[in-house]
């Protein structure tokens, strides 16, 4: 038994030994009243975490009691996803995940009581609405991680319950093929590393279950998509955080190992094997496939550069002195799934620490996914390292676009996202830093960090734990420092700092120390 599996099983035994978490169904109504998701979701995912632990290492009677409680839930979908229909038959990400978990638990454990009722709930809540619907669900037509997760998890639940493979083929495979077609030739995931793990993870899990059932290989030809994490890594435990992402996502070792073994793709450098607790949503599929396929991965980070032209991501790592410095630049368009107003924004990191940061994902609320999205801190243009042009911020919409083009020593970003005003950003590596030149009318620069900048004359300095960044060329007559208090995706408080000043008309230089 490898060390990863041993550690996970020990963690699961510790969870299973604890009392079953409390669950207040009334918190489902809190979302409608306040727009907050976390109060209900915290207990929902704690219950799923306990379910997984009991199913794998727990006592049958306790497991049966918790399964019965889940069968009594008003809905397996999250309240934020309820539509105008019956919440009990809302087919969302987590309803499908719950159906898959329960179906595979029935196959794994023969001591679950009231098995007929459990299977009936799986069918009633998820499989019947999905397989019997004559109209496609929205996520079968608007391709994102939802497409792969919902179709893949429902498909795995159906396979676990013994559905005819022709039935599964007719509904699941078209959705998953459409999901694959949403990627360009570069394999980049426009939703970012976290949603690559989610969407392509569930695609992979279903693909392997389908191969076991039919011998057909759905993974063949997906090498570019499978290589995405290695392409956008800044350092071990650090990735580009464009969109609703985290700098240190939990990458399931089982998923990475299987993709490497099956497709021979490069792996990101992993210095920390994630625990089950690292997955806030406590996903059964990630856990069980890691127990089955996972191993310690290791690896080293090396200098290199990647341009993913289809999604518009550039990532370059250079060894300067004794530090690995990274520059990541964002192109694309301003109506992407999990979109931020971030065209031309960038990250500068020292050994993975973002000295100039992308804020990544904020706390998910009703407003975060509503009409007020771009008034929220994390998705807004004001809290990305992008300038205003003639006083205007970037505009929302598919027509707002940025194209990235390699140069000999960096990348150029051609940005058309400001109405009548266009912007060219030129990033150039030097022996000791990075030069930035912006061409556009009446620019006011913004540089965002979680570190408070210190200014002196025409210099600004961000001092981190792993490196120091000095910006030369600040206009001292117009410089100002602003900050905002906000909350992370998991509701933890954080503060962002912005250095703003009028572009002086000459190039800016970042010195990397």
TrEMBL record:
Its main location: other. InterPro entries: Chondroitin_lyas, Hepar_II_III_C. It is found in: Cell envelope. Gene3D superfamilies: 2.70.98.70, Chondroitin AC/alginate lyase. Transmembrane segments: none annotated. Residues 305-393 form the Heparinase II/III-like C-terminal domain. It comes from the Bacteria. It holds the Pfam family Hepar_II_III_C. PANTHER family: CHROMOSOME 1, WHOLE GENOME SHOTGUN SEQUENCE, HEPARINASE II_III-LIKE PROTEIN. This is Heparinase II/III family protein. It comes from Glycomyces niveus. The lineage of its organism: Bacteria, Bacillati, Actinomycetota, Actinomycetes, Glycomycetales.
């Amino acid at each position: 038994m490898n060390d990863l599996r041993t550690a996970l099983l020990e963690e699961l035994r510790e969870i299973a030994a604890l009392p079953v978490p409390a669950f207040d169904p009334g918190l489902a109504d809190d979302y409608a009243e306040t727009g907050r998701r976390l109060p209900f979701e915290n207990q929902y995912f704690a219950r799923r975490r306990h379910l997984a632990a009991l199913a794998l290492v727990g006592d049958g009677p306790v497991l049966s009691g918790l399964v019965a409680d889940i069968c009594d839930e008003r809905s397996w979908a999250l309240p934020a996803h309820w539509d105008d229909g019956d919440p009990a038959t809302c087919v969302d990400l987590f309803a499908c995940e719950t159906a898959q978990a329960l179906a595979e638990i029935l196959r794994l454990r023969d001591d679950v009581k009231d098995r007929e009722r459990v299977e009936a709930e799986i069918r009633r809540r998820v499989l019947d609405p999905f397989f019997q619907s004559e109209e496609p669900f929205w996520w079968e037509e608007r391709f994102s991680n939802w497409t792969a997760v919902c179709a893949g998890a429902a498909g795995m639940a159906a396979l676990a319950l013994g559905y005819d493979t022709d039935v599964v083929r007719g509904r699941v495979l078209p959705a998953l093929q459409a999901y694959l077609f949403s990627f360009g030739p570069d394999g980049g995931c426009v939703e970012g590393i976290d949603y690559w793990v989610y969407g392509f993870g569930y695609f992979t899990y279903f693909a392997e279950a389908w191969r076991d059932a039919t011998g057909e290989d759905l993974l063949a030809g997906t090498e570019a998509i499978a290589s995405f994490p290695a392409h956008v890594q800044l350092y071990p435990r650090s990735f580009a955080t464009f969109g609703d992402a985290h700098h240190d996502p939990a990458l399931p070792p089982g998923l990475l190992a299987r993709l490497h073994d099956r497709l021979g793709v490069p792996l990101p450098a992993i210095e920390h094997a994630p625990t089950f607790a690292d997955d806030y949503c406590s996903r059964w599929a990630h856990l069980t496939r890691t127990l089955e396929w996972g191993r310690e991965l290791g690896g080293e980070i090396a200098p290199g550069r990647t341009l993913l032209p289809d999604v518009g991501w550039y990532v370059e790592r250079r060894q300067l002195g004794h530090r690995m410095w990274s520059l990541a630049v964002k192109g694309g368009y301003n109506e992407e799934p999990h979109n931020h107003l971030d065209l031309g924004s960038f990250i500068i990191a020292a050994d993975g620490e973002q000295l100039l940061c992308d804020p990544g994902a904020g706390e998910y609320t009703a407003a975060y996914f509503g009409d007020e999205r771009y008034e929220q801190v994390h998705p807004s243009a004001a809290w990305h390292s992008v300038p205003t042009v003639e006083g205007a911020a970037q505009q929302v919409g598919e027509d707002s676009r940025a194209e990235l083009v390699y140069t000999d020593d960096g990348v150029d970003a051609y940005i058309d996202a400001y109405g009548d005003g266009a912007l060219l950003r030129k990033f150039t590596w030097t022996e000791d830093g990075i030069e930035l030149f912006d061409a556009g009318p009446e620019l006011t620069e913004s540089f965002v960090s979680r570190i408070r900048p210190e200014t002196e004359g025409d210099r600004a300095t961000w001092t981190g734990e792993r490196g120091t960044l000095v910006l030369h060329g600040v206009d001292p007559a117009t410089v100002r420092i602003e900050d905002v208090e906000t909350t992370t995706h998991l509701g933890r408080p954080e503060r962002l700092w912005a250095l703003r000043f009028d572009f002086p008309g000459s190039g800016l230089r970042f010195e990397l120390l």
